[in-house]
Write a structure and sequence with these properties.
Layout (H helix, E strand, L loop, with lengths): L1 E6 L5 H13 L4 E7 L1 H10 L4 E8 L3 E2 L1 H7 L5 E9 L3 E4 L10 E4 L1 H6 L1 H7 L4 E4 L3 H9 L7 E5 L1 H6 L3 E4 L9 E8 L1
Protein backbone atom coordinates (compact mmCIF):
# COMPACT_ATOMS: atom_id res chain seq x y z
CA UNK A 1 0.00 0.00 0.00
CA UNK A 2 1.34 3.41 -1.00
CA UNK A 3 1.39 6.21 1.54
CA UNK A 4 0.45 9.68 0.31
CA UNK A 5 1.36 12.69 2.41
CA UNK A 6 -0.72 15.82 2.14
CA UNK A 7 -0.64 19.34 3.54
CA UNK A 8 -3.01 19.82 6.44
CA UNK A 9 -5.00 17.33 8.46
CA UNK A 10 -8.38 15.61 8.04
CA UNK A 11 -10.93 18.07 6.72
CA UNK A 12 -8.37 20.24 4.93
CA UNK A 13 -8.70 21.36 1.35
CA UNK A 14 -5.53 19.35 0.63
CA UNK A 15 -7.19 16.15 1.85
CA UNK A 16 -10.03 16.72 -0.63
CA UNK A 17 -7.49 17.38 -3.40
CA UNK A 18 -5.52 14.25 -2.44
CA UNK A 19 -8.64 12.09 -2.71
CA UNK A 20 -9.35 13.49 -6.20
CA UNK A 21 -5.75 13.23 -7.39
CA UNK A 22 -5.55 9.59 -6.33
CA UNK A 23 -8.75 8.84 -8.27
CA UNK A 24 -7.36 10.60 -11.36
CA UNK A 25 -4.07 8.68 -11.11
CA UNK A 26 -5.87 5.35 -10.61
CA UNK A 27 -4.13 4.78 -7.29
CA UNK A 28 -6.64 2.69 -5.36
CA UNK A 29 -4.48 1.11 -2.68
CA UNK A 30 -3.19 4.12 -0.79
CA UNK A 31 -3.23 5.51 2.71
CA UNK A 32 -3.51 9.27 3.19
CA UNK A 33 -1.06 10.67 5.73
CA UNK A 34 -1.72 14.17 7.13
CA UNK A 35 1.64 15.97 7.31
CA UNK A 36 0.44 19.57 7.87
CA UNK A 37 3.06 21.45 5.81
CA UNK A 38 5.22 21.30 2.69
CA UNK A 39 8.48 20.81 4.58
CA UNK A 40 7.09 17.78 6.42
CA UNK A 41 6.02 16.26 3.09
CA UNK A 42 9.47 16.86 1.58
CA UNK A 43 11.16 15.32 4.63
CA UNK A 44 8.88 12.26 4.49
CA UNK A 45 9.48 11.83 0.74
CA UNK A 46 13.25 12.00 1.24
CA UNK A 47 13.08 9.51 4.12
CA UNK A 48 10.95 7.11 2.08
CA UNK A 49 8.12 7.29 4.61
CA UNK A 50 5.66 8.21 1.85
CA UNK A 51 5.59 7.46 -1.88
CA UNK A 52 3.79 10.61 -3.03
CA UNK A 53 3.00 14.10 -1.82
CA UNK A 54 -0.04 16.30 -2.45
CA UNK A 55 0.68 20.00 -2.17
CA UNK A 56 -1.09 23.24 -2.92
CA UNK A 57 1.09 25.22 -5.29
CA UNK A 58 -0.92 28.26 -6.45
CA UNK A 59 -4.15 30.08 -5.69
CA UNK A 60 -6.04 32.29 -8.13
CA UNK A 61 -6.51 35.02 -5.51
CA UNK A 62 -3.38 34.82 -3.35
CA UNK A 63 -0.82 33.56 -5.89
CA UNK A 64 1.94 31.01 -5.24
CA UNK A 65 1.79 29.01 -2.01
CA UNK A 66 5.00 30.30 -0.44
CA UNK A 67 5.57 27.33 1.85
CA UNK A 68 5.65 25.02 -1.21
CA UNK A 69 7.89 27.38 -3.17
CA UNK A 70 10.34 27.67 -0.27
CA UNK A 71 10.48 23.97 0.61
CA UNK A 72 10.78 22.66 -2.96
CA UNK A 73 12.81 25.44 -4.61
CA UNK A 74 16.00 23.38 -5.15
CA UNK A 75 14.38 19.94 -5.26
CA UNK A 76 14.01 17.72 -8.31
CA UNK A 77 10.52 16.18 -8.43
CA UNK A 78 8.05 14.76 -10.91
CA UNK A 79 4.48 16.05 -11.14
CA UNK A 80 2.15 13.08 -11.64
CA UNK A 81 -1.16 14.93 -11.56
CA UNK A 82 -2.83 18.29 -11.15
CA UNK A 83 -6.18 19.13 -9.62
CA UNK A 84 -7.81 22.55 -9.38
CA UNK A 85 -10.10 22.80 -6.36
CA UNK A 86 -12.63 25.60 -5.83
CA UNK A 87 -11.88 27.02 -2.38
CA UNK A 88 -14.77 28.25 -0.26
CA UNK A 89 -13.77 29.52 3.15
CA UNK A 90 -16.02 29.60 6.20
CA UNK A 91 -15.72 31.42 9.49
CA UNK A 92 -16.43 29.32 12.60
CA UNK A 93 -16.52 29.89 16.34
CA UNK A 94 -16.75 27.62 19.34
CA UNK A 95 -20.27 26.59 20.41
CA UNK A 96 -21.82 28.75 23.09
CA UNK A 97 -19.52 31.72 22.46
CA UNK A 98 -21.07 35.05 21.53
CA UNK A 99 -19.62 36.21 18.19
CA UNK A 100 -19.44 39.79 19.48
CA UNK A 101 -16.78 38.68 21.98
CA UNK A 102 -14.37 37.32 19.37
CA UNK A 103 -10.98 39.05 19.30
CA UNK A 104 -8.88 37.10 16.78
CA UNK A 105 -9.12 34.80 13.79
CA UNK A 106 -6.74 31.88 13.24
CA UNK A 107 -5.93 30.34 9.89
CA UNK A 108 -3.25 29.61 7.30
CA UNK A 109 -1.61 32.70 5.71
CA UNK A 110 -3.04 31.71 2.30
CA UNK A 111 -6.58 31.78 3.73
CA UNK A 112 -5.92 35.24 5.15
CA UNK A 113 -4.82 36.53 1.74
CA UNK A 114 -7.89 34.97 0.10
CA UNK A 115 -10.28 36.65 2.56
CA UNK A 116 -8.58 40.02 3.22
CA UNK A 117 -11.29 42.31 1.85
CA UNK A 118 -14.24 40.38 3.26
CA UNK A 119 -12.69 40.28 6.73
CA UNK A 120 -11.77 43.98 6.64
CA UNK A 121 -15.34 44.83 5.75
CA UNK A 122 -17.20 42.43 8.07
CA UNK A 123 -14.84 41.67 10.99
CA UNK A 124 -12.20 44.42 11.14
CA UNK A 125 -11.77 43.90 14.90
CA UNK A 126 -10.35 40.37 14.53
CA UNK A 127 -6.55 40.17 14.76
CA UNK A 128 -4.85 37.56 12.58
CA UNK A 129 -3.26 34.53 14.22
CA UNK A 130 -1.31 32.56 11.59
CA UNK A 131 -1.19 28.76 11.93
CA UNK A 132 0.03 25.92 9.70
CA UNK A 133 -3.30 24.70 8.34
CA UNK A 134 -6.95 25.75 8.13
CA UNK A 135 -8.33 22.42 9.37
CA UNK A 136 -5.75 22.39 12.15
CA UNK A 137 -7.24 25.70 13.32
CA UNK A 138 -10.66 24.07 13.56
CA UNK A 139 -9.20 21.21 15.58
CA UNK A 140 -7.28 23.59 17.86
CA UNK A 141 -10.40 25.66 18.56
CA UNK A 142 -12.52 22.57 19.21
CA UNK A 143 -10.02 21.03 21.64
CA UNK A 144 -9.31 24.26 23.54
CA UNK A 145 -5.76 24.88 22.26
CA UNK A 146 -6.93 28.24 20.92
CA UNK A 147 -8.76 30.69 23.20
CA UNK A 148 -12.58 30.66 23.06
CA UNK A 149 -12.42 34.25 21.79
CA UNK A 150 -10.86 32.98 18.54
CA UNK A 151 -12.67 32.36 15.26
CA UNK A 152 -11.17 30.14 12.56
CA UNK A 153 -11.22 30.21 8.78
CA UNK A 154 -11.47 26.73 7.30
CA UNK A 155 -13.54 24.51 5.03
CA UNK A 156 -17.15 23.74 5.86
CA UNK A 157 -16.10 20.09 6.30
CA UNK A 158 -13.35 20.94 8.82
CA UNK A 159 -15.55 23.15 10.97
CA UNK A 160 -18.72 21.06 11.04
CA UNK A 161 -16.86 17.78 11.63
CA UNK A 162 -15.41 19.29 14.80
CA UNK A 163 -18.71 20.61 16.15
CA UNK A 164 -17.99 24.30 15.63
CA UNK A 165 -20.67 26.93 14.97
CA UNK A 166 -20.76 28.44 11.50
CA UNK A 167 -20.67 32.24 11.44
CA UNK A 168 -20.42 32.74 7.68
CA UNK A 169 -19.86 30.77 4.47
CA UNK A 170 -18.08 31.74 1.26
CA UNK A 171 -16.03 34.52 2.80
CA UNK A 172 -13.36 34.34 0.08
CA UNK A 173 -12.89 37.64 -1.75
CA UNK A 174 -13.34 36.06 -5.18
CA UNK A 175 -16.25 33.82 -6.12
CA UNK A 176 -13.88 31.97 -8.47
CA UNK A 177 -11.21 31.32 -5.81
CA UNK A 178 -9.34 28.12 -6.74
CA UNK A 179 -6.15 26.38 -5.67
CA UNK A 180 -4.02 24.16 -7.89
CA UNK A 181 -2.71 21.03 -6.20
CA UNK A 182 -0.06 18.65 -7.47
CA UNK A 183 0.50 14.96 -6.87
CA UNK A 184 4.26 14.56 -6.98
CA UNK A 185 7.11 12.25 -6.15
CA UNK A 186 10.87 12.67 -5.87
Amino acid sequence: MDKVGYMGIAGSFSETAAEELLKQAGITDAKLVPLVCSQNILDALRAGDISYGVLGIRNTTAGPVSEFTEAFQDVSYTVLGEYILPIHHCLFKKQGIDASGLTEVASHPQAFRQTDHTRAERWPQLREHAIDDTALGAQMLANGTLPDTTAVICSLRAGTSRGLDLIAENIEDSSVNKTTFWLLQL
